[in-house]
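In response to reviewer comment 3 from the previous cycle, which asked for concrete evidence that the modeling workflow produces usable outputs, we include below a single protein chain processed end to end. The sequence was submitted unchanged, and the resulting structure tokens are shown without manual editing.
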Amino acid sequence: MKTVGAKRYGSAALIILIVLQLLMLCSLFTRTEPHPPLSIPLFGLAPFLSAAIAVACAALFLRSGAVKREGMFLSILAAILALISFGPQKWIDPAIDKIWPAVALGQIAALAVFWAAYQMAGDKGL
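The workflow returned the following structure tokens.
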């Protein structure tokens, strides 16, 4: 029974991460302030956000099917990728006064994904 609740919370958290990253990508394309930079030292941000959204969508899809274990691992990866955009390092960003709601919600959603994966792993013995 604990797995059902964890699965729902995890799925809801993934949807939050998908929406946040999708809107971040839209603001990047339209240059709506405050938009993320076009690139960071490691990579271009648009391809990264697209990959992060794709991983989160795949995780959401696999969590509901017969391959729950793979969905759980993709969920963890999706949360880690989201924390690159919404992680604790954002609290010292110069634009934090404009982006704090997304940062806070992104961190809460990532924690919910981690918690759900932990709960599901504990129930299944993974």
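The mean pLDDT is 88. We consider this sufficient to address the reviewer's concern, and the full set will be provided in the supplementary archive.
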